[in-house]
Design brief:
The chain has one domain. Helix content is 64%, strand content 0%.
């Protein structure tokens, strides 16, 4: 759990990871049980809208993780997204930020009843990564800045 909470720079991302690890983060499967306006099933593919589904399994985002795995030359599995990667703080920060951005899209889609497509999700992730690379530059976290900036350009070209 240290990789996903303690070693993460930003408090918002730490809190998101903590909620995700403890299965108390927002997802249709949980929220839909007490709010009948929220579907317990994914609006994209019809499968149960669990936290893991939103962040990793849904066809809307699975290609993003596959492409990132290719770029970093290491498979990113459900386990890495949930528990992090031992002794790899930069990659844990990156994976956590991408997961947070994906979840942010789910919140907007759910609250505002906006139909997101993969291009829109990618645009949100790219925007968040570029913003965070500037923040890391100001904090003199150059390794994180470079990783976030490079991945945003490589993973999301021409967007």
């Amino acid at each position: 759990m240290k990789h996903k909470v303690v070693d993460i720079k930003e408090n918002k991302i730490r809190e998101f990871n903590y909620k995700f690890l403890n299965k108390i983060g927002g997802c249709g499967y949980l929220v839909g049980k007490w709010n009948s306006n929220i579907s317990v099933d994914c609006e994209i593919c019809g499968k149960p809208d669990t936290q893991l589904h939103i962040l990793f399994q849904c066809p809307l985002v699975s290609d993003i993780w596959n492409e990132l795995s290719t770029i970093i030359q290491s498979n990113i599995s459900e386990s890495e997204i949930v528990f992090g990667i031992k002794d790899n703080r930069p990659l844990n920060n990156l994976i956590s930020q991408i997961a947070y951005s994906i979840h942010k899209c789910w919140i907007i889609r759910t609250n505002e009843k906006i139909k997101y497509n993969e291009f829109q999700v990618r645009s949100v992730i790219k925007s968040d990564l570029l913003y965070k690379s500037k923040v890391f530059h100001l904090l003199k976290e150059n390794q994180l800045k470079d990783i976030f900036q490079n991945v945003s350009v490589i993973l999301f070209p021409h967007r």
